[in-house]
Amino acid sequence: MYRMLIATVLAALTFAAQATVDINKASQAELETVKGIGPAMSERILEERKKGPFKDWSDLIVRVKGIGDGNAARFSSAGLTVSGSAYAAAPKDKPAAAPKADAKR
After folding, report:
1. Where in the chain are the domains?
2. Which residue, 49, 48, 60, is CA-closest to 85?
3. Phi-psi region for residue 67, left (φ > 0), alpha (ψ -120 to 50) or beta?
4. Are 32 and 45 in contact (CB under 8 A)?
5. pTM for this predicted structure
């Protein structure tokens, strides 16, 4: 009986830890449950959100100082969404390799 109760409680806690947090709806406390978002970052997010909701991840990256591609990817994997969408980084174009100059000329 106790094992079943403990298993149920642990399952509920695990589910809560994996819950998604939508940046356009979350309170400061909810934002801070996302790994990597502390009080300073959550305040910057809320200040920018007062100007209008975030349209997508690129809008968030442009408007909030301290959020770049790397942080966006980490926050998304920790459960943060923008209008219900997870972060999907655009593939970066690799620069074409320049031909090597012959060193023995």
Report:
1. 20-81
2. 60
3. beta
4. no
5. 0.69
Rounded distance between C-alpha atoms, residue 40 and residue 77, angstroms = 20
Alpha carbon 75 to chain centroid, angstroms:
2
Looking at residue 15, its pLDDT comes to 47
- Given a contact cutoff of 8 angstroms between Cβ atoms, the answer to whether 22 and 4 are in contact is no
Mean pLDDT across the stretch 65-86?
A: 95
Per CATH, which fold does 20-81 belong to? DNA polymerase; domain 1 (1.10.150)
Helix H or strand E segment including 81: strand 80-81
73 has pLDDT over 70: yes
Half-sphere exposure of residue 5, counting CA atoms within 13 Å on the CB side? 2
Tokens of 36: 């990597």
DSSP reduced 3-state for 80: strand
